[in-house]
Amino acid sequence: MRTGTRVAVALILLVAGTAGSVGAMNLIQTARLNEAGRVSFTFGGGLVRQEDPSMVWFLTPQVRVAIGVSDGINLAFQSGVLTPLGSADPGWLGVHVDARLRITEVPGSYTLSWGVGGGYGLDFFGEGWGIFGELLFESQSRSFPIFVSYRGVLRFDDMEELHLRPHWSGGVHLRLAPLARLLLVMDSFDGTLTLGLGLEIML
Known about the structure:
The protein is mostly beta strands. It has one domain (3-202): Beta Barrel (Porin), CATH 2.40.160. The chain has 1 helix and 12 strands, in the order H-E-E-E-E-E-E-E-E-E-E-E-E. A hairpin with an 8-residue loop joins strand 7 (110-120) and strand 8 (129-139). The longest helix is centred in the first third of the chain and has 15 residues, at 3-17. The two termini are 29 Å apart.
């Protein structure tokens, strides 16, 4: 499948899928790590609808910044806002901070990494302090450029029952330029789906 066709299909799925979504912080990230001293910015978001009687539509602009501490370790943070269409009263989606380490990388084939982190807004409603662990896979194949992430979230208000909430994400990464990629992603948290996209720029 050609790159242009993949982009068109993914954008159609994005628009179609927002009809039943809830405002969320997407996992707009892959297993790839920045080299030491390199910084990447990922600008993303989506158009989503809250599942309540008012059926309000929201824009969810987000930004993720990742810093290469070493060739195998990255430190990153992500934050965003939830803005109702037709209103100038945005809400905060929260902030996540994480450290990621490379497990293995086979050039031209795949990358596998894991990470730990925490923050506020660890669900699709922009609420709750907590911590998480995550495992990320990325295919480096040009004909099959997929990525998959799993994040196990433990919110502090769930500590008594030690309820680990699963947050899955997956999608495709499309190379736009030597230092820029488009990320098209679908997330699932506690059975709720949302879709988003991000533009990743490496400096």
